[in-house]
Design a protein that fits this description.
Elements (H helix, E strand, L loop, with lengths): L1 H16 L2 E14 L2 E17 L4 E10 L5 E11 L2 E10 L21 E10 L7 E10 L12 E11 L4 E12 L15 E15 L2 E12 L4 E12 L1
Antiparallel strand pairs: 1-2, 1-12, 2-3, 3-4, 4-5, 5-6, 6-7, 7-8, 8-9, 9-10, 10-11, 11-12
Length: 242
């Protein structure tokens, strides 16, 4: 028993020593996600997370809302990071009042009824002379179903991003992403569009402003969705970083 107590105490001490809370919040004119404008108007998003094991594991809560109350989202997330490789799971629940799916039962995890979806994301950021970022995500559970609500479609999103310019405090990133379903289930549509193809092309220009003793990261982001024939423009500022 004494040895077990020492082991438990050792594990707790290790986790506590290298653990840290983080809190950030952003203001933007809309909320964009994988070629989709999830919400417009003034949007506040925030992320409360807890990292441990020397930053290799992170767990947290992400939330978003707009000033009109027509957009409300609350997500749980867990990620594992080793150098440039990351594995993340996002349990996403959008309970906006005008949602066309189940937005009133947060703890409903029945596949055919739930209003949430679980997204698994594998990503890798290369270092050195070719710092490209690659990611693959698949919705492994939730409201990603066929029209008859009998099968999961496992909609996937592949994304590549590259920094075009990183000088004099400026950073310009360009990226593109495509969506498709691993299980078509007799249909051509998926979570991100009506057929397999490019649904997200973006260019993001970022810089950190100095106001008095405060550092405020800001960015302007342009997103084009060729499949939906839509384009979106975003201005955002990080107002809290702890």
């Amino acid at each position: 028993m004494r040895k077990l107590c020492l082991i438990v105490w050792g594990v707790f001490f290790t986790l506590h020593t290298f653990a840290q809370f983080h809190l950030d919040a952003r203001l933007s004119n809309n909320h964009l996600w994988r070629g989709i404008e999830v919400a417009d108007g003034m949007v506040l998003t925030s992320n409360l997370s807890y990292t441990f094991l020397k930053g290799h594991v992170c767990a947290g809560f992400w939330g978003g809302t707009n000033t009109t109350g027509q957009y409300k989202e609350f997500n749980n997330h867990l990620s594992f990071q080793v150098k440039g490789l990351s594995l993340a799971f996002w349990d996403t629940y959008n309970f906006s009042p005008q949602a066309t799916y189940n937005n009133k039962e947060f703890f409903n995890y029945k596949a055919s009824e739930t209003g949430r979806f679980l997204d698994a994301i594998v990503s890798y950021r290369f270092e050195g002379k070719f710092p490209v970022y690659l990611s693959w995500s698949t919705i492994i559970f939730g409201r990603d179903r066929n029209l008859s609500n009998t099968e999961n479609k496992y909609s996937s999103f592949c994304y590549v991003e590259y920094p075009l310019y990183t000088k004099k405090g400026w950073r310009v990133d360009a990226g593109a992403g495509g969506g498709f379903a691993l299980n078509k289930a007799g249909e051509s549509n998926h979570f991100y569009g009506t057929k397999p193809g490019i649904v997200h092309v973006t260019m993001k220009v970022a810089r950190t402003l100095s106001l008095g003793g405060y550092k405020i990261p800001v960015h302007v982001c342009m997103v084009w969705n060729p499949q939906a024939n839509q384009a979106y423009y975003q201005v955002a500022a990080q107002i809290i970083s702890l």
